[in-house]
Structures are given as C-alpha cells and as structure tokens.
Specification:
The chain is α+β, with helices and mostly antiparallel strands and about 250 residues long. It folds into three domains: about 60 residues, SH3 Domains (SH3 type barrels), CATH 2.30.30; about 55 residues, SH3 type barrels, CATH 2.30.30; about 120 residues, endopeptidase domain like (from Nostoc punctiforme) (endopeptidase fold (from Nostoc punctiforme)), CATH 3.90.1720.10. Strands 18-23-19-20-21-22 form a six-stranded antiparallel sheet, with helices on both faces. A five-stranded antiparallel sheet has the order 6-5-4-1-7, with no helix packed on it. Strands 11-8-15 form a three-stranded antiparallel sheet, with no helix packed on it. Helix 1 packs across helix 2. Belongs to the peptidase C40 family. Pfam families: NLPC_P60, SH3_16. It is an enzyme of class 3 (hydrolase). GO terms for molecular function: cysteine-type peptidase activity.
C-alpha cells in the first residue's frame, strides 16, 4: 500500500520508539510493509530506506505536483504574507498545487509563495549549488531537512534535487555514486570525498562543503585542513574520491 508523509518532518526509526536512522518530509511517498499498534513499517520510495513511523505520520493523498526549491518556506492561511502561517516546510518537500495566483500557490496545507516552488520533474542542475543554499543548517544525526541535516543527508538532498538517484547513508553512497578516482587525482567542484562514516562535497579544489560535528552545521572548510583534522581525530584517511560528472 502506497501512502505519503503527513507531517513537515518525520523521523524514520530503526524500531518502534527506537533511534532515528533518517528523516522523511511531507509528501514523500512510502510503501507500507506492516502495521503494529500505533506504528507502520515503511520503505521510502526515494531510496528504499526502511524503518518505522507513527501511524498518524502517513496519509492517503493525491500525488504531489511541485516541490519546495527554496531552503525553507511557509504555508499561509491566505494569499497574504502577513496572514498567519500554518506550517514550515523544508527544501525538498513535495506539495500538491490546486491553483495559483499572482504570488501564491494554493495547496491543501495553505498558500505557499510561488517563487519557492518548482514543478515535479523539473530538477536543478548543480548539486553543490543546492548544498550551498543549506550552509548554516544545524547538524543533526540522521537529519534530512533545512531544520537539521547530517553529511549523507546533505549529499542525498542535493543529488535528488538534481534528478540523481542517491542512497540515504554514506556507505551505500560511496558504493553507488560516481566514478572512483586514483589516489592523488586533482579535485574539482562536484566531487565527493568519503571517509568511514562521513562524506563531503568538493566545493572547489581548495574547499570542502559538508555537514559536520566539528562545526555542528553545514559549513565550508579548507580541504587539506579537513583531511588532516579528520585523520587526527581518529576517523582515518579518505576512503574514496568519487567523481559524479565528467
């Protein structure tokens, strides 16, 4: 049975009442695998990630038509930015637009600024540019939203926004994404560097862009300094340098 997420952000748990593994956003499609009292086990359509959600976190709804392409947005009660806001939605949230006016799109969640929406099937082009819009987002283990995100969440959010399939965790990302480059290869924008349990975008040949505990945020860091810091803190060397684009 296919349903979609009914709340702005929902933790995808390893077990009922267990630890958060990832997060799902309003409008994300899921397949219900099983139901227990108060809980549903689901698989996320975007990456196959499995976990548990409270039963009220999913709903049967019409397919989304647009997605939020601003870092975050609000849904208002009326076509007026001074009207009360009903909800806040993160980058990547999927919504069904019912009609549009001069400045706002009407959805079943309220009125959302048209400038913050993009049609489903209309991807962005540069995943690093997407990740750059999330600089300053607080670090959150397992996070996938503008309100909190981790290293693999940042990679997945940026890839999916650009129409690139992407697993949810750094280990599967290392195996699935891009082409592995020989050690000592030059860095270029859009490359990914992997460590055991960590991943970072190459923003330019001298700079990494990643969600990290050192800054507790999505932040820029000098590339060579980051490699040294990560090794010295005990997390080891770079395990892979991958290139997404030729």
């Amino acid at each position: 049975m296919s349903l979609s997420i009914a709340h702005p952000v929902v933790d995808l748990l390893r077990t009922p009442n267990g630890p958060r593994d990832r997060q799902l956003l309003f409008g994300d499609d899921v397949t219900v695998l099983a139901r227990t009292e108060g809980w549903v086990e689901v698989a996320a359509a975007k990456d196959g990630y499995r976990g548990f959600l409270p039963s009220d976190a999913v709903r049967d709804t019409a397919r989304a038509t647009h997605w939020v392409s601003a870092p975050a947005t609000h849904a208002y009660e009326a076509e007026d930015f001074k009207s009360p806001d009903r909800a806040s939605f993160s980058f990547g949230t999927q919504l069904r637009v019912q009609s549009t006016g001069d400045r706002f799109a009407k959805t079943d969640q309220g009125y959302v600024p048209k400038a913050h929406l993009r049609a489903i099937g209309d991807p962005l082009a540069d995943p690093v540019a997407v990740a750059e819009t999330l600089i300053g987002t607080p670090y959150l283990w397992g996070g996938n939203s503008r309100f909190g995100i981790d290293c693999s969440g940042l990679v997945q959010v940026a890839c999916l926004a650009c129409g690139l399939p992407c697993p949810g965790d750094s280990g599967p990302q290392e195996r699935a994404l891009g082409t592995r480059l020989p050690e000592g290869s030059a860095y270029q924008r859009g490359d990914l560097l992997f460590w055991k349990g960590h991943v970072a975008w190459v923003r330019d040949p001298d700079t990494l862009l990643h969600a990290n505990v050192h800054a507790m945020a999505v932040a820029l860091e000098p590339l060579d300094a980051a490699i040294t810091r990560i090794a010295e803190q005990g997390d080891g060397p770079v395990t892979a340098h991958k290139r997404l684009f030729d």
